[in-house]
Amino acid sequence: MEENKKNRDELEIDLGRLLRALLSRAWMIAIVSVLCAVLTVIGTILFVTPKYESAAMFYVNNNNLSFGDTSVSIDSGDLSTSRNLVDSYIVILNTRATLMDVIDYAGVSYSYKELQGMISAKAVNETEIFRVVVNSPDPQEAEKIANAIAYILPKRISTIIDGTSAKVVDAAVVPSSPSSPSYVKNTVIGFLIGFLFVVAVIVLRTILDVVIRTADDVTQSCPHPILAEVPDMNAHSKGSSYYGYGSSRSGKKKGKYATGSQPEKPALMGPSISFAASESYKLLRTKLQFSFADENDCHVIGLSSALSGEGKSLSAVNLAFTLSQLNKKVLLVDCDMRRPTLAEKLGILKYPGLSSYLTRQCAFEELLQPCKFDGSENAFHVITAGHNPPNPVELLSSDRMKNALDIMRKAFDYVILDLPPVGEVTDAMAVAKKTDGMLLVVRQNYCNRIAVNSLVRQFEFVGARILGLVYNCASEDGGVYGKKY
After folding, report:
1. Cα gap 98→121, rounded to integer Å
2. Helices 15-24 and 183-208: crossing angle, nearest 10°?
3. Nearest residue to 414 via CA among 308, 326, 337
4. Which residues pair with 442 in a beta bridge?
């Protein structure tokens, strides 16, 4: 148990989820990659000056060397000594005196530093041959400078190092095509940059996006099963007070996630809901019956959620109605005494309510109100929240609340408690341990995995029995990553 809790403390990176996100955006990856490749080619053509490369090759003649009064005998087979000698020749080539002679001989108007930046030299495959390469935007100029080096460098070397020389193996020629830039190479680089950039953005967004997008996101956030997936019964009602938490008489939302204006009342409750939604609640009813097999005659079921606006109250109403269709005596209780919604949703009297009974202002029988939808033969009873007390947690934790639940158990087959969201207040925690089981409502593209994780852990902490989850407002596409809602 402790290990499971520890594992849920950290959100795992789901490779399958990352792969699905990448595959769903494969078209974007392809378009951006090709676009970057095209832009790279265009930028190369417009802004990169072509460079031409001309080279001359020299052979190191290393017999007897004389440095001043010192004479050294060199074995021509000593490759290490040859490489050192090549390095010495390259140093001589890059001296200011040598390069100034090259500038004068070639008749070019470069400074010593500029010409030095145009020249590169290195040994060929660690042999006694070294190659001097000149890069220039003018192919004729590149050839002229390279041949000037071929003329100046051997003379310069012979005046500095006695007993050796550098002989020209291959003279420079005018290059027929530019050596840089490479359009193929730049195109591949541009494509890879675009590809890696888009993949990185998608992966980062997927990792940082903790919003519940699919049913798999729910099951990865907690160990409890999804008992029903309720489709979005009215796509245009998202953010309305029917899914919301605490709408006022003026129709303005007071909930944390309130958006938009009050729409006309959609068919979200009772017998008029869609066939798919009706079947989802019937499936939930069936699974609950199996959950309570061979237990008490009456079952008290609490409904809560992590955040406000997840459709918890609607789920409670529809569950109560679905259970009543089995000719069961069902009681629906609004335990949210801070922001009650059932009275307004069902069009019944707000007072007296649960708070009135818990503060000894009325008898229990005065709380019960029948609720029957048009076109339905079945009815269930409702207890509203009543007046807003200053101490709802204390009232819900009191012995009188326990006594009220005992009375409910004797009079009804099912008692459905509409509890506040755990992410808003802690009232639900006081009642959860008195129930026979808890249903947790999670809304797609609204709640997040961190909130679900916290929701489950808080109810487990107080010892409540979690029956499972109701996955609410499930879209047909499964909430593909990146879709706007």
Report:
1. 14
2. 130
3. 326
4. 471
What angle is formed at CA 331 by the lines to CA 326 and CA 332, rounded to 5 degrees?
115
**Sign of the dihedral through C-alpha 106, 112, 118, 123:** positive
Query: Each residue of 40-96: pLDDT tens digit?
Result: 999 999 998 899 999 999 888 765 444 455 545 555 455 555 566 788 888 989 999
**Which H helix or E strand runs over 136?**
strand 129-136
- Can you list the pairs that 8-11 forms with residues at least 24 positions away whose Cβ atoms lie under 8 Å? 8/221, 8/222, 8/223, 8/453, 8/456, 8/457, 9/453, 11/210, 11/221, 11/449, 11/450, 11/453
Gap between the Cα atoms of 227 and 219, Å rounded: 11
pTM attached to this predicted model: 0.66
Task: Tell me 446's DSSP state.
Answer: T
Cis upstream peptide for 178 (omega within 30°): no
CA–CA separation, 160 and 92 (whole Å) = 9
Spell out the long-range contacts of 203-211 with Cβ–Cβ below 8 A and sequence spacing 24 or more: 203/18, 203/21, 203/22, 205/21, 205/481, 205/482, 206/17, 206/18, 206/21, 206/481, 207/13, 207/18, 209/481, 210/11, 210/448, 210/449, 210/450, 211/445, 211/446, 211/447, 211/448, 211/449
**Contact of 440 with 455, CB cutoff 8 Å:** yes
Tokens describing residue 62 = 């290393």
**Cβ atoms of residues 338 and 388 within 8 Å:** yes
Question: Contact, 471 vs 315, CB < 8 A?
Answer: no
| Whole-number Å distance between alpha carbons of 408 and 330 | 10
Of 216, 229, 212, nearest to 469 (Cα)? Answer: 229
Give the residues across from 333 on adjacent strands: 383, 417
Structure token digits, residue 199: 């993949």
Angle between helix 15-24 and helix 26-47 axes, rounded to 10 deg = 60
pLDDT in tens, 157-178: 888 877 667 888 889 999 988 8
Cβ contact 217:13 at 8 Å? no
Residues 165 and 58: their CA atoms lie apart, in Å, by: 10
Angle at 268 between CA 259 and CA 416, to 5 degrees: 100
Using CA atoms, how far apart are residues 319 and 14, in angstroms rounded to an integer? 33
Cβ atoms 141, 115 nearer than 8 A: no
The phi, psi pair for 364, rounded to 5°, reads -65, -40
Question: What single-letter amino acid sits at 458?
Answer: Q
For residue 453, CA distances in Å to 219, 243, 418 come to 10, 21, 20
How many residues are present in the chain? Answer: 485
